[in-house]
Design brief:
The complex is a heterodimer. By secondary structure, chain A is mainly alpha-helical. Chain A is built from five helices and three strands, in the order H-H-H-E-H-E-E-H. In chain A, a hairpin with a 2-residue loop joins strand 2 and strand 3. Chain A is elongated and about 65 Å long. The longest helix of chain B is centred in the first third of the chain and has 30 residues. Classes of the chains: A mainly alpha, B mainly alpha. The interface between A and B is large, with 40 and 45 residues.
Chain lengths: ~160, ~120
């Protein structure tokens, strides 16, 4: 069942990418989708490495929209910083604890920090990130803790 | 030109122009900012806001076509890979021993004992 679904998904993606609907070309696309799924199944027997996505899709989409808004806000902040007549940087490197259970959610949190201009995740260690900020102020800790809570809440299995 | 098409055209060009503006700002920032760490932040303006707005504008230009689907897929990949690449560069700088400057009024010890940071080492040897 999963095999058929993934073959169909691959073929659908191929149709979207191609845009040429001659019988020969579509046939080649279908054949390559089937071949790719066959290869993946063969490899699965070897490495047994299944990817799990422990995220709630609806919460994830809501988080994405919230994140886009954050990106807009911090873009404005950093643009002002760049175009200000006098450069007023307060660079700082600080620890941000993270509470996610799965690695995937940790990656989402770290990438969200980096995606918003003005903060970059520099290093990870166990249950915390080192974050570099270009115009640091004390409110950053609270803002990032808020983001941390939001990422944790999109995990399934989290209360 | 009818009204909906006009509105889409206006929105599309508004986001393309804003996106281009952010790209230019990002370039100015990369030249103006004093050191590696702050320049990384300037680059991320074009990487996030500029990229998203340009792709949004181009999506509105092409309407409901396959090109829009490809642009959206491109955007999703860039949103994932952009921060990852930025992190890779920043992390490489950190492990090779580049310490970020701190503003005069911020003690390095304020929240950051720099001694807790990983030692400058060349990994993978």
């Amino acid at each position: 069942m999963r095999t058929i679904l993934s073959a169909l998904a691959l073929f659908g993606l191929w149709l979207l990418m191609s845009g040429i609907y001659k019988p020969l070309v579509v046939g080649l696309g279908a054949a390559s989708a089937v071949f790719a799924v066959y290869m993946v199944r063969r490899m699965d027997r070897v490495d047994q490495d299944h990817l799990k996505i422990p995220l709630n899709p609806f919460h994830f989409i809501a988080y994405g929209i919230w994140l886009l808004w954050e990106v807009v806000k911090s873009n404005v902040t950093v643009t002002k910083l760049i175009l200000a007549p006098h450069l007023n940087l307060r660079q700082h490197l600080f620890r941000v604890p993270n509470t996610q259970k799965s690695e995937l959610a940790e990656v989402i949190f770290a990438n969200s920090i980096t995606l918003t201009p003005g903060t970059i995740t520099v290093e990870t260690e166990g249950d915390a990130f080192w974050v570099h900020a270009v115009s640091y102020d004390e409110g950053d800790h609270e803002a990032l803790a808020d983001m941390d809570r939001r990422v944790t809440s999109i995990e399934t299995g989290a209360a | 030109m009818d009204i909906p098409a006009l509105i889409i055209e206006i929105l599309s060009w508004a986001s393309i122009v804003t996106g281009s503006f952010l790209m230019v700002v990002s370039g100015i920032g990369m030249l103006r900012f004093p050191d590696f760490w702050s320049r990384t932040h300037a680059a991320s303006v074009g990487d996030s806001g500029g990229m998203i707005l340009l792709i949004l504008g181009m999506c509105l230009q092409s309407g409901l076509t396959l090109i829009t689907v490809k642009l959206i897929i491109m955007g999703i990949f860039l949103i994932i890979t952009g921060p990852t690449a930025t992190h890779a560069v920043a992390n490489a700088a950190l492990v090779t021993g580049w310490r970020p400057k701190t503003a005069e009024d911020l003690e390095p010890e304020q929240g950051v004992p720099y001694s807790d940071l990983p030692e400058p080492t060349v990994r993978g040897q």
